[in-house]
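Troubleshooting: if your tokenizer reports a length mismatch, compare your output against this known-good record of 348 residues.
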Amino acid sequence: MTVATKTLSILLACGVAANAYLAWELHSRLPPSTAELDRDLAALAETAPVQNSEDPQVKAEQALSAAIRAQTRDMLEQRRAAALRFVDLRYTVTGAAAPTANADQLAALEADITQQLATLAERKAAVDEVRAGTIHTQRLASLSLVETTLALLERRHLALKYGVALPTAPTPSAALPAADKDAIAALEADIAERRRVIADTRKDADQYSGGLIKVTLLQRLATEQATLAALEQRLLSLKHGLPPAPGLPPVAAVAVAAEVLAPLDADIAATRASIAAGEREASRYTGGLIYVTILSRVATERMTLAMLEQRRLSIKHGLTAAPPSLAGDAAPKPKGPPGAVVTDKEAL
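Known-good structure output:
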């Protein structure tokens, strides 16, 4: 074999190796198979909307959930079209490359999605138990909030899974700011307390087959569940960098001054003291009209306590803005009586 032949053979072998490497590199960069995309799109299409309601809060939450799912569906369909055309579509919504799927982040999202699906099934069953009235509306509002949280989690999970860069990127737990870590710890503590209260309230409600006390306890249970749903959404938003709505920035930890919460803390302490006094008074009786009246009053005060604690937690964790009366911004006082001052004779 001549030197020229050997050289040609070596060059040919190098060319084959280079082509093989190039083919492997291009294959590794191809978008994912459409089979899995089709399954995820079908799962989104099968998601049944929550029940219709005329309540403005519920309708707004339903519209938000529908918008998030529509955005997720459009995202996957665009990704699927790119895969069919063998285009490695780089999403650069913010000018940054798409994040690389992290196994730990995906596992954490999948665990939270599974938990939210279980919560969603529980809330749907609760809505089906009561077909109308205030309790039905409260339960439907809580269900809609869980549905929105689930839609946000699924969008984040699918974006990370298929390499789509959303306007906000998830931050690894180890890289979270100290303020976010403190907020997450506080949220987890408050969520654990709400779950305990919900379990106790459900046990109390199960002791009655009907009547005013039963209805009051069910209203309190619905209020506590709505509070829990809002706290869980806030926690998951901080953990996974979820924006509250399409096009909005992600949530951030908030710091609330003690004097803002002081009026609510005072009302909560007074209500708890009144509840304790009522329970001591009820323990003196074993039955009768007086006993039932005291229990009814205590149940009503517990409902008041649930609403006060809901308001406090909403302000504490930034779920809603502090009202002017709590923030210390008093309404301006009128400088004088409205209208012109007239005498009695002129008035006649």
